[in-house]
Specification:
Helices cover 59% and strands 15% of the residues. It is α/β, with parallel strands linked by helices and 635 residues long. It has 3 domains: 202 residues, no CATH class; 152 residues, 2-Layer Sandwich (Alpha-Beta Plaits); 238 residues, Alpha-Beta Barrel (TIM Barrel). Strand 9 and strand 10 form a beta hairpin. Bound molecules: ligand C2E and magnesium ion (MG) (2 copies). The site of ligand C2E has 24 residues, from strand 9, helix 14, helix 15 and strand 13. Ligand C2E binds next to strand 9, helix 14, helix 15 and strand 13.
Length: 635
C-alpha cells in the first residue's frame, strides 16, 4: 500500500511526457492507416479508424492540464484513482486495438511488408510503453500483454515455422520486458518515496523555523513574510489590512511575583486564544517577550475596533497555572493599511506608536494611530531607551526636601526626591520618568539605588533626622524588597528607625493582602511606612485601619485650598484628628504661603513640607543646614 501523495506523483508520471504519448499515438495510427489503405481490407480499415479515434481521445486526455498549476492542496485518493482509471482504460483500449490490428494484418493479408509494418510498430510500441509507464506497473504490464499477446497468437496460428520462432522470441522478449518494468518500478518508487520524505522534512524544518518556540504561533520572520505578501496583494484587492500590536501590561511583575513558568504559561494561554480567534483571518505572531501582533484582512477600517475589543476580552480571561488563575491585561496599538502606512515598515512603526499611546493612556485599552502622536511618544520611547544606561552613567541624583515639626520648627525628616539629568534631554521630571521606569521594570533597580544612596547620605548627617523615600507600587511587589532595605541599612549603618517609606494609595487597590504583608515586613525591620498623597484618588478611610502606616501625608491639593476653602480646612482638620486617634502622625505637604502655614498650625498636624519652608536641596546642603542650629523653618 503506498501513500496517497506517492501514488499521486506516480500517476502524474503517466502524464509527465505527453509528447512521447503523442508521438506513439500519431506514429502507430499513421502506420495503421497506411496498412489498412494498402491492404483495402474492410476489417483493417475499421481497426485503423478505431485506433485513430482512440489515439485522438488519449492525446486530448494527456494534453489536458490535470490541475491548476498554483493549486498546492493535495488531491484526494479518490480523485487520483479516477485519474488513473481513465488513463488505464485509454491505455488498455489502445493497446488491445493495436494488438488486434496486428493480429488482423497477420491473418487477413499475405503482404509480408504490411505484416512487418504492423508487427514492428506494435512490438516497438509495447517495448516503449513498458518503460514509459513503469511508474504504474500494472498499466504497463497490461499494455505490454494486450499489444503483444494478439501478435504472438497471430504468428502462432500461421503455423509457419519462421513466424512461430518469431512468436517465441517475442514471448521471451515480453517476459524480459515485464521483469525490467517491475525493476524500474521498484527504483522509481524508492526514489519517489525518498524525495518525498526529504521534501516533507525540509517543509517541517521550514515550518519550525517560522514558529515561536514557546507559544507555537508565528514568529517574527514568518510575520514579516506574511505582512509583505499581504502588502503585495493589497493594491486593488478591495480590502484593508489591520495590524493590532499588543503588549501585556506589567508582564514583568507577573514573572517576578509568580515565576518564569507562570509567565510562560500565561504567554502560551494567551497566544493559543488569539490564534484560535484570528489565526484563520490572518496571522497571529509573537514578536518577542510579551508582545504579539495580529494582522487581519478587513473590509472597512471600522472593523479594527471590534477586533481590538475582542483582543482585550481574550487577554483578560484568566489563564490557569497549577490551579491558580493568572490575570493579565493588554494595551493594543492599531494601524490600518493603506491609510496609516503604504508599506510594512511604516504600518509597523505607526502601530507601535499607537501601542505606546495606549500604554500611556492607562493600559487595558486600544488606541488607533493618529499622526499627531508621533512627537510625544517618540520622546517617551527615547527616554525609556536612555534610561537603560542612566544609572551606570551617573545621571541620577537625589535631592532632599526638609520636613519641619510644626511645634518646634525643627527639621524632623527629609523627603528624598529623585532627579534625572539626561545627557540628551537634560533634566527630566520624576512625574514624567517614574511611570516610564515603572513600565520597563527599571524602577526596581533604580529604586534600590535610591534607598541605598539616601541611607548613605543620611548616615553622614550629624542630627538624627529621618529620611522618607518614595516607593513605587512595582517595587512594593518585588519579593526581594525587604532584603534590599536590610542590605542598604546594614551597609550604610543607618539605624532602621531613621528610614521611612512613602507609598501612594494606588498601591492599596490591588492585592490588599500582599501589600499588608509587605508593609508589615517593612515595619518588622523597624522601618516606618507613610501613606503619601492622602485625599487624592480613591481615599478610603478603611485604608487607615486596614493597612499598617505610621504616618499620613495630606495631599497638597487640600493645602493649596486652605486659604479659600473652609471645606478644605474642615477636611484637613478631620484627617488630622482621625489620624491622631488611630495613632498616626500627619504631615501636610505643599506649603507655599505663610497663610497656609498659619491655617495648618490651627490644626494638630505634626509636620509640614513645602517650598515655603524649604526647597528640595542636595544632601550636603541638608548636612550644613542641620549642623547650623540657627537655621530654622520660617515662622
Ligand atoms: P511626592 O512623593 O508627592 O513628592 C512631592 C512632590 O511635591 C515633589 O515633586 C516635590 O518637589 C513637590 N513639592 C514639594 N513642596 C512643594 C510645594 O510647596 N508646592 C508644590 N507645588 N510642589 C511641592 P517631585 O520631586 O517633582 O516629585 C514628584 C513625584 O515623583 C513624587 O511625588 C513622587 O511620587 C515621585 N518621585 C520622586 N522621587 C521618587 C523616587 O525616588 N521614587 C519613586 N518611586 N517616586 C519618586
Ligand atoms: Mg512622596
Ligand atoms: Mg506626596
Amino acid at each position: 500500500m503506498i501513500a496517497t501523495q506517492v501514488r499521486e506523483t506516480l500517476v502524474e508520471s503517466l502524464y509527465a511526457s505527453p509528447q512521447s504519448l503523442v508521438i506513439g499515438a500519431v506514429a502507430s495510427s499513421a502506420i495503421a492507416v497506411t496498412v489498412a489503405t494498402v491492404s483495402g481490407d474492410p476489417w483493417l480499415i475499421i481497426g485503423a479508424v478505431a485506433l485513430t479515434l482512440t489515439a485522438c481521445a488519449r492525446m486530448v486526455d494527456a494534453l489536458r492540464p490535470t490541475r491548476p498549476p498554483d493549486e498546492r492542496a493535495q488531491r484526494s485518493d479518490l480523485q487520483i484513482k479516477r485519474q488513473e482509471l481513465i488513463y488505464l482504460a485509454g491505455a488498455l483500449c489502445y493497446s488491445m486495438l493495436l494488438g488486434g490490428f496486428g493480429l488482423l494484418t497477420l491473418t487477413n493479408t499475405d503482404d509480408g511488408v504490411l505484416q512487418l509494418l504492423s508487427v514492428t510498430t506494435t512490438i516497438g510500441y509495447a517495448a516503449g510503453i513498458a518503460g514509459r509507464n513503469a511508474g504504474r506497473p500494472w498499466i504497463a504490464l497490461g499494455q505490454l500483454c494486450c499489444a503483444s499477446g494478439p501478435i504472438i497468437v497471430g504468428l502462432l496460428v500461421s503455423l509457419d515455422p519462421l513466424k512461430v520462432e518469431l512468436a517465441i522470441v517475442i514471448g521471451l522478449f515480453v517476459v524480459a520486458m515485464m521483469s525490467i518494468t517491475l525493476q524500474t518500478y521498484d527504483v522509481i518508487l524508492k526514489a519517489t518515496v525518498a524525495s518525498m520524505e526529504k521534501a516533507a522534512l525540509a517543509e517541517y524544518n521550514a515550518a519550525l523555523a517560522r514558529r515561536d518556540d514557546l507559544t507555537g504561533v508565528a514568529n517574527r520572520t514568518a510575520f514579516r513574510e506574511q505582512l509583505e505578501a499581504d502588502f503585495a496583494s493589497l493594491p486593488g484587492a478591495g480590502h484593508c489590512l489591520s495590524i493590532h500590536w499588543l503588549d501585556l501590561d506589567r508582564f514583568k511583575e507577573i514573572n517576578d511575583s509568580f515565576g518564569h513558568l507562570a509567565g510562560n504559561a500565561l504567554l502560551c494561554g494567551i497566544a493559543a486564544r488569539l490564534d484560535e480567534a484570528f489565526g484563520r483571518r490572518g496571522i497571529v505572531a509573537r514578536l518577542g517577550g510579551d508582545e504579539f501582533a495580529i494582522v487581519c484582512r478587513i473590509q472597512r477600517p471600522g472593523e479594527a475596533s471590534g477586533i481590538g475589543r475582542e483582543i482585550l476580552r481574550l487577554v483578560e480571561q484568566p489563564v490557569q497555572h497549577h490551579g491558580r488563575p493568572l490575570h493579565a491585561s493588554a494595551s493594543v496599538g492599531i494601524a490600518v493599511a493603506p491609510t496609516d502606512g503604504r508599506d510594512p515598515d511604516t504600518l509597523l512603526k505607526n502601530a507601535d506608536l499607537a501601542l505606546y499611546r495606549a500604554k500611556d493612556s492607562g493600559r487595558g485599552q486600544f488606541c488607533f494611530y493618529e499622526p499627531v502622536m508621533d512627537e510625544k511618544v517618540e520622546r517617551s520611547r527615547n527616554l525609556a531607551a536612555e534610561m537603560k544606561g542612566a544609572l551606570g552613567r551617573g545621571e541620577f541624583y537625589l535631592l532632599f526636601q526638609p520636613i519641619f515639626d510644626l511645634q518646634g520648627t525643627e527639621v524632623v525628616s527629609c523627603e528624598v526626591l529623585l532627579r534625572w539629568n539626561n545627557r540628551r534631554y537634560g533634566p527630566v521630571s520624576p512625574v514624567e520618568f517614574v511611570p516610564i521606569a515603572e513600565d520597563s521594570g527599571l524602577i526596581v533597580e533604580i529604586g534600590r539605588w535610591v534607598i541605598r544612596e539616601a541611607c548613605r547620605s543620611a548616615s553622614r548627617w550629624s542630627a538624627e533626622v529621618k529620611i522618607a523615600v518614595n516607593l513605587s507600587p512595582i517595587q512594593l511587589r518585588s519579593p526581594d524588597l525587604p532584603a534590599a532595605i536590610l542590605g542598604a541599612l546594614a551597609d550604610t549603618e543607618l539605624p532602621a528607625h531613621r528610614l521611612e517609606l512613602e507609598v501612594t494609595e494606588s498601591v492599596l487597590l490591588a492585592d490588599a493582602e500582599g501589600t499588608i504583608a509587605v508593609l508589615k515586613a517593612i515595619n518588622a525591620l523597624g522601618v516606618g511606612t507613610t501613606l503619601d498623597d492622602f485625599g487624592t484618588g480613591y481615599s478610603s478611610l478603611s485604608y487607615l485601619t486596614k493597612f499598617p502606616f505610621q504616618t499620613l501625608k495630606i495631599d497638597r491639593s487640600f493645602i493649596s485650598d486652605l486659604e479659600q476653602s473652609p471645606a478644605s480646612v474642615a477636611i484637613v482638620q478631620t484627617i488630622v484628628e482621625l489620624a491622631a486617634k488611630l495613632g498616626m502622625r500627619t504631615v501636610a505637604e505643599g506649603i507655599e504661603t505663610q497663610a497656609q502655614l498659619d491655617q495648618l498650625r490651627r490644626t494638630r498636624c505634626d509636620a509640614a513640607q513645602g517650598y515655603f519652608l524649604a526647597l528640595p536641596m542636595s544632601a550636603s546642603m541638608v548636612g550644613a543646614m542641620l549642623a547650623d542650629d540657627r537655621i530654622r523653618a520660617r515662622g
